[in-house]
Amino acid sequence: MNSTSAPEPAQPTERIPAAERREQILAAASRVFGERGYSGATTDQVARVAGISQPYVVRMFGTKENLFLEVLARALDRLVTSFRQIIQEPREAGPAATELLASRLGAAYVDLIEDRGILLSLMQAFISGHNPVIGAKARAGFLEIYRMLRDEAGFPPDTIREFLADGMLFNTLLAIRLPDIFHEDPAAAELMRCTFRGKLDVVLDATAAESTDADAAPAPPAAGHVDAAKDDK
Amino acid sequence: MNSTSAPEPAQPTERIPAAERREQILAAASRVFGERGYSGATTDQVARVAGISQPYVVRMFGTKENLFLEVLARALDRLVTSFRQIIQEPREAGPAATELLASRLGAAYVDLIEDRGILLSLMQAFISGHNPVIGAKARAGFLEIYRMLRDEAGFPPDTIREFLADGMLFNTLLAIRLPDIFHEDPAAAELMRCTFRGKLDVVLDATAAESTDADAAPAPPAAGHVDAAKDDK
DNA sequence: GTCTATATAGGGATAGAC
DNA sequence: GTCTATCCCTATATAGAC
């Protein structure tokens, strides 16, 4: 309380290579943007989750919009990479081949969006059609997936439509956190069973381990405790 | 420039009953929240679209969150009402009855979300699972629809799933403004045709008439012009 | 590579006049 | 019923030290 001065230099953050720090920030930003939305998230929250100072975040990415764009690109990239890899795996021919591939891709998709950062960054982008920059990226990304399914996976249009529709339902159910009330509401359980089928357990498991803590203290050194615990609104 | 004083009382807005004004504000808020998101929207933008002053908006709804909640409730209400009405219409029995009803409900849904305010208010709510108040409303609303389809429409689980999945795909394609590039991108056209089918024309038509103008001048009296035209970022 | 300090703007909400 | 004025907090971004 009355120490002569020394404004607590806040743990002199470890000095690590920029590239690595970049990754940390992107990971943190993905989670924070996911929880609070593009406008709702603050660079300060991102900084806290990443364990560094707010100005450093801005320093590294120039602007908040820029940061979001990188987060979005990263999410799309993971999605595309994951899909392409599965498509290129050797697969048996036969009538059920398409169906089997679709189900593999679906499973991979669920695994991906288990990461709320990825899920919600994508959804954030979807509802930003109004924003010229973000909106354009969202459209381009969506169509890239469409073309991949058509040209690389060889899906017929209706299969693509069904696949995408299922994906959007996955998105929504996870976004509204239906798994949270799986045990309280029978209707929720029914809908989830019928939607996620074999993947139900994965979805339910992931429900436990989470919480972003964009508020509260800085993160990195497993410090004892800090005063903080500011807003949460 | 050098008028003695008189800070331009800004058209002395017409004095109308509170209930009516309420509706105006809700309509305006629906559009603004839809375009900018919950956090991205400002009460001032809502006020401008409604043609009144910012403090009055706050006055009437207490807080911004409250205003959003009312917008959301209004959207859900319209949805529920519209569906219920269709379900209760007399319908022929027979094997194709379920399918026919589903297609009618689907068409009604597209009509509803043609209103970007409604569409995006719903989607905003979906991605606010994190917010205890809004998130809870979103879950409750979604499950209400589910139960209605199950208990009132008598749909089997898989039909419900497909129906909801299609709906979520509608949402997404409209949210990212795919109709905007219908003529520029063949893949976009393909996907939209196959998704919206008979409703394609409706979706494409509505694409023209829009733009919120939350920025720029006040609205109501067809005034000559005003300076304004502020941000737009 | 990372921080502290701070300029500066924006936005929600309140007070009180008309 | 509606506005003007305005308080005050929050958030992005910049400057510059270490």
User: Oligomeric form of this entry?
Assistant: homodimer
**DSSP E strands of chain A, number:** 0
The secondary-structure element order of chain A is: HHHHHHHHHH
Shape of chain A: globular
Q: What is the CA-CA span between the terminal residues of chain A?
A: 28 Å
CATH class descriptor of chain A: Mainly Alpha
Number of alpha- plus pi-helical segments of chain A: 10
Please describe the biggest sheet of chain A, giving its number of strands, its sense, and whether it closes into a barrel: none
Largest contact between protein chains?
Answer: A-B, 48 and 48 residues
Protein architecture, described:
- Chains A, B: Pfam families: TetR_N.
- Chains A, B: This is TetR/AcrR family transcriptional regulator.
- The structure is a homodimer of 233-residue chains.
- Chain A is mostly helical.
- Chain A has a single domain, classed as Tetracycline Repressor, domain 2 (Orthogonal Bundle), CATH 1.10.357.10.
- Chain A contains ten helices and no strands.
- Chain A has helices at residues 18-36, 43-50, 54-61, 64-88, 97-113, 116-126, 132-152, 157-175, 186-196, 200-208.
- In chain A, helix 2 packs across helix 3 and helix 4 (64-88) crosses helix 6.
- The longest helix of chain A is centred in the N-terminal third of the chain and has 25 residues, at 64-88.
- The radius of gyration of chain A is 21 Å and the shape is globular.
- The first copy, chain A, binds a DNA duplex (18 and 18 nucleotides) through helix 3.
